[in-house]
């Protein structure tokens, strides 16, 4: 009887150990994902806005927009099709930061000529 009890306890312990290892790796993966997401969302522009440096934040934000790969297609004289394809994507990408800053997203003319 005692050998059967020890065997049953060993099996339960083995199953619980495997479940704990799997859960540990799931938690580690979730933490890694959260860390990567927080690094992407909490960048220097948010830091500048939070600390009252709105002018510096606006300058950095405009610089980021200007250096964005989508902006490459809008520099110069884009066709209407190119403009209609890339400008809304650019606006969608940065509108939240401009809203946090209390500014409107720049119009195409202001974005290109400033």
List keywords for this structure.
single chain; 0% strand; elongated; 114 residues; mainly alpha
Question: Total number of β-strand segments?
Answer: 0
Instruction: Estimate the strand proportion.
Output: under 5%
Based on secondary structure, the structural category is mainly alpha
Global shape: elongated
Main sheet makeup? none
Average residue-wise pLDDT:
82
Uncertain parts: none
Residue share in helices? over 70%
What does this structure look like?
The chain has about 110 residues and is mostly helical. Helices cover about 80% and strands about 0% of the residues. The chain contains six helices and no strands. The N and C termini lie far apart (about 85 Å).
Fold blueprint:
Elements: H1 2-41, H2 44-50, H3 54-67, H4 69-72, H5 80-101, H6 108-113
Helix pairs in contact: 2-3, 3-5
What is the structure about, briefly put?
The chain is mainly alpha-helical.
